[in-house]
């Protein structure tokens, strides 16, 4: 994780020294988005298990939640500091990251639907054992108690 942060910070620093203000904002947004996607990768794993277990729900990151936005703005500041970016619009970058983040998650979700359709046609009850399904449901219940997650049905 520290190596990834260093690489991202080095890339941001290089872009900061060589690019225009618009390029700096774009590079900062891309860096923060990559980090946010990486930091929520466990949600992708949970959703993959949901597909394999043939559950009728989908775990979503609530990008309107206070907790998500606190993390987002904290990461914008952190990576701007790493890259020594002094002037940037945090709200503009946050909006850009949110669009990219949601787009990524929707793309992954679409891929999950393809897998889900295959699994459900071959194994209507899913591929999970009862203990795995129980653990998964408990983890989902724990996460949705937090401000930053919500469940939706898989018909969206």
- Count of discrete domains: 1
The fraction of residues assigned to DSSP E strands is 5-15%
Order of helices and strands: HHHEHHHE
End-to-end Cα distance:
33 Å
Number of strands: 2
Structural class: mainly alpha
Give a written overview of the molecule.
There is one protein chain. The chain is mainly α. It has one domain (2-153). Helix content is 72%, strand content 6%. It contains six helices and two strands; from the N terminus they run H-H-H-E-H-H-H-E. The chain has helices spanning 2-18, 21-39, 41-52, 66-82, 90-122, 130-144; strands at residues 57-61, 149-153. Strands 1-2 form a two-stranded antiparallel sheet. Helix 4 packs across helix 5. It is elongated and about 55 Å long.
Main attributes of the structure:
156 residues, mainly alpha, two-stranded antiparallel ribbon, 2 strands
What's a quick, concise take on this entry?
With about 160 residues, the protein is mainly alpha-helical. It is built from 6 helices and 2 strands; from the N terminus they run αααβαααβ. About 20% of the residues are buried.
């Amino acid at each position: 994780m520290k190596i990834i942060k260093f690489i991202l910070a080095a890339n941001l620093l290089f872009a900061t020294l060589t690019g225009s203000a618009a390029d700096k904002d774009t590079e900062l947004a891309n860096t923060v988005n990559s980090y946010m996607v990486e930091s929520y990768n466990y949600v992708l794993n949970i959703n993959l298990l949901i597909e394999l277990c043939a559950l009728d729900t989908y775990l979503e990151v609530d990008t309107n939640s206070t907790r998500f936005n606190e993390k987002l703005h904290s990461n914008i500041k952190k990576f701007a500091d790493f890259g020594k970016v002094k002037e940037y619009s945090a709200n503009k970058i946050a909006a850009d990251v949110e669009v990219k983040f949601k787009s990524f998650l929707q793309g992954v979700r679409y891929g999950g639907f393809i897998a889900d359709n295959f699994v459900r046609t071959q194994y209507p009850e899913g591929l999970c054992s009862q203990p795995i399904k129980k653990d998964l449901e408990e983890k989902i219940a724990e996460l949705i108690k937090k401000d930053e997650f919500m469940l939706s049905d898989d018909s969206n």
